Amino acid sequence: NRSDRRVIVSGVSRLALSQQRLRLEGELRADRARLEMPEASRPELSSDVVVVGQPPREDAAARRIPLQLDLKLDLKLDLGDDFLFKGGGLDARLGGQLRVYTLNDALRGEGRIRVVEGRYSAYAQTLDIERGELSFVGPIENPGLDVLAVRKTATVKAGVQVTGTIQRAVVTLY
Predict the structure, then answer these.
(1) How far, in Å, CA of 146 to CA of 60, rounded?
(2) Mean per-residue pLDDT for 107-120?
(3) Which distant-in-sequence residues (6+ apart) come within 8 Å of 64 by Cβ?
(4) CA 40 to chain centre
(5) 3-class DSSP string for the chain
(6) Cβ(149)–Cβ(159) under 8 Å?
(7) Distance between CA 35 and CA 58 in Å, rounded?
(8) Are the C-beta atoms of residues 99 and 110 closer than 8 Å to each other?
(9) What pLDDT was estimated at residue 63?
(10) Distance CA 160, CA 167 (A)
């Protein structure tokens, strides 16, 4: 709960810790969500940069006291009917279900997140999203894409279509 990120969830989950093994499982539903990602701010130095003449930065607590835990995750997430996201030019109401789990220590996903209604703004243009979907079948960092965003005038309907995956997106002018 922050001024720019607020999520209210309901559901059942279970967290267990035994012999250096952490397990989190359950089913959660977002009853209401408002996520706003700030526009890109000024660049920052990465944590491995050393500035000559300055004292070294103190390590974060997680680096000072490393936890060697085996994490097992199996969560079913439902975005519900009131999930709003704003950031990176996207202003949308999202829906869908997603199962997030670990398999052989890799984070995986199954399910779909879709744009129920939304707009995308870039290069001084605003496009209406007619179709927007992320499909998860495997590694969570590389979902499939199916997006069509258009701008309509009296005589022309033009826009952009994005297919493929996050790591290998194919962008076509429409």
Answers:
(1) 39
(2) 96
(3) none
(4) 16
(5) CCCCEEEEEEEEEEEEEECCEEEEEEEEEEEEEEEECCCCCCCCCCCCCCCCCCCCCCCCHHHHCCCCCEEEEEEEEECCCCEEEEECCEEEEEEEEEEEEEECCEEEEEEEEEEEEEEEEECCEEEEEEEEEEEEEEECCCCEEEEEEEEECCCCEEEEEEEEECCCEEEEEC
(6) yes
(7) 31
(8) yes
(9) 54
(10) 18
From the number of C-beta atoms within 10 Å of its C-beta (0-12, 13-18, 19+), residue 129 rates as buried
pLDDT at 121 over 90: no
How high does pLDDT run on average in the chain? Answer: 88
pLDDT at 123: 76
Q: From residue 75, how far is each of 13, 19, 119 by CA, in Å?
A: 8, 21, 29
Q: Flag whether the pTM goes above 0.85.
A: no
Burial of 50 (0-12, 13-18, 19+ CB in 10 A): exposed
Which pLDDT score is estimated for 59?
64
Please state the length of the chain.
Answer: 174
pLDDT digit string (tens) for 35-77? 998 766 556 777 777 778 878 777 655 555 455 668 899 999 9
